[in-house]
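Entry 14. Two folds queued back to back today. First construct below, sequence then structure tokens.
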Amino acid sequence: MQKMRRFVEKFTEKSGTYTHPTEGVTESVILGLAQNVDEIKRPLCPCRFYPDKTEEIKHRTWICACDDMQIYKYCHCLLFVDEEGLPITEYLPEDHEGLEMYGMVKDPHPDKGRPLRHKAEEREIERRERPS
């Protein structure tokens, strides 16, 4: 738990995000990440269902900080959010469910985070080509 707390603290500073202001949300996600580290040695996002966690970690997509966080600065788990506890949706593709659910949430620190922003276009092409 301590290792994951330190990771989260450092990542919020680096990415210009905040942890969720509602008591218990951050701790629950950190607990899930820590359990996955204990179980499969990787901080796999605890907010998703995986038929096979071992297979999932080979793809890296949902290892915290996940691809969506690295590309769009969007956290499905609500671990990395704005000061009000909303996920940042400013950089999401137009038809992303995050925009539909939360509306436009501006990035409070656009100068920080998104180290994989260059992959946004590639990700969008992959998403469109995926069978429905």
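Second construct, same run, same settings:
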Amino acid sequence: MQYVSTRGHVKPKGFIDTVLMGLADDGGLMIPEQTPVVSSEQLQAWASLSYEQLFLEIFSLYINDEIPKDELRAMVARSYSSFRNKEVTPLKKVHDSLYILELFHGPTFAFKDVALQFMGEFYSYVSKKQGEIIHILGATSGDTGAAAIQGVRGKEGIKICILHPHQRVSKIQELQMTTVQDDNVLNLAVKGNFDDCQKIIKDLFFDLKFKGKHHLRAINSINFVRILAQTVYYFYAYLQVNQGNDKPQLINFSVPSGNFGNVFSGYLAKKMGLPVNKLIIATNENNILERFVRTGEYKPGDFRSTHSPSMDIQVASNFERYLYYLLNEDAEKVSAYMEQLKSEGKIVITGEDLLKVQSEFVALGATNQQCLDLIAKYKSEHDYLLDPHTACGIAAYEHAHMDGEVTVALATAHPAKFDEAIILCEIEQEFPEEIAKLLDQPQFQTVVELDEAEIVRQLIDFYQ
């Protein structure tokens, strides 16, 4: 298996080099040269596997034997040893047509843990094997930063700097990042929004001299290993729903999505042969992805702060990966579209291409009030407390559901991380001990202006 860039100007790379590259050197995103396809017989054989065993089977299709199986197995075991549920991503049945896949049982109570605890182990493995220091640099709308820091804090040979939008993440998200005082962690609170932070990260990774000199490595979902790790729970959920069924049924997935990485993982799983019926994209009032599916126009709009801050994103990084497949893997067309987005501020998909988009996705941008109403409704009617991002997913499920269908809605975070929204629903929740104890701890962060030069100065000081 080799990996290429969506823009076509990077020589094919192996798995480890692809992960280390992060953002492709030509500004594109790395994707597998071919997508491995899982047969129905192979899928059936996976039905009895544990989550960790399934992870190993899926990754073995992509890693070219670059990591010995026993070493990969040890990394996976360490990655999920800190999860509070032995199933890693347990499935809860709400009623006959709806299941909730709980992705928040990792150390930071968010779905990002599923991929980032493994990435921390992977970077530590590479650092030791290659004898090089690794400087991880990422932007977060809240959850990625906490999960990434937890995955690498205290690890020898690794330093991590995370940019987050100052006062635009939940208080618990902020505390999970900024109460970590390990010497290899730097938190920069940027006076801007997530898209501002993400643009700075991409600019620095595209500066190949700076990237090479400082051994920069990506932790955001521009890194393909994030995407691949997330495909595992789509397979796992499908196999759990259909356990014991003589005639396996197609499953819908409703996916809260801001940066398009989570739902793209579902798209990749479908390309691999997973029998997915609908992929439902759930966004909030920052609804660029809904508008794209509905009209074909991909155009960042006015930024809005919402009760689901992890999805307060207008520019979805992983959209380019989907565009590559939509355009039949034509890297020249992808490059032209991305240049048009940069110069004109939008791209428009029409005709057969738009019909293809609409055959592959359904989308809904839920309002703040819809999310609050659904949090209250599901607590009252099903005794299940949704976080506001998962509530967006439930809104999209209710919008797209048809009789006879079964949907798995992805619960991307524990509600304790977003108590500001839960309080508005007049619901009092009990915080898990790990979250409650954060409230009394000192914080370590540096507040900076939206100034790339100042951020670079902070990084250079940190790396020395």
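Quick look at the second one. The mean pLDDT is 95. The domain at 91-109+225-429 is CATH 3.40.50.1100 (Rossmann fold).
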